[in-house]
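Please, structure for the following, as tokens.
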Amino acid sequence: MSDNPASLKYVETHEWVKSEDSAELTVGITDYAQDLLGDLVFAELPEVGQRFSAKEEVMLLESVKAASDIYMPVNGVISAVNTELEDSPELINEDSFGEGWLFKLEADNSADIDGLLSAQQYEDSLDE
């Protein structure tokens, strides 16, 4: 089982969410997800300022063996993207919970993250 930080919130579609000091949330994919995808070769990032609803497709990750949609964890607006991924998508494989973050968002309602999964709930969902 991957070591999912307890300080983060999770979505069943394998995204993690980190609450920053501001109203901004950082989003990435779990180590489990990057391992399933394999070596990532391309990240199609969203545009800053784009608005998405929870569970809406935000971006695409492509690996040598598959392509995978990434979904918005809560309603909000993209406030930043990890431009390092344009030239180095492998950062996601190397450090999925750190340098391999995908995008940041300003949630419409910061309390929405309370409805996301804890690390234990996410790990339990992988066993199902």
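Residues 9-108 form a domain with the OB fold (Dihydrolipoamide Acetyltransferase, E2P) fold (CATH 2.40.50.100). The helical segments are 31-37, 84-87, 91-94, 119-127.
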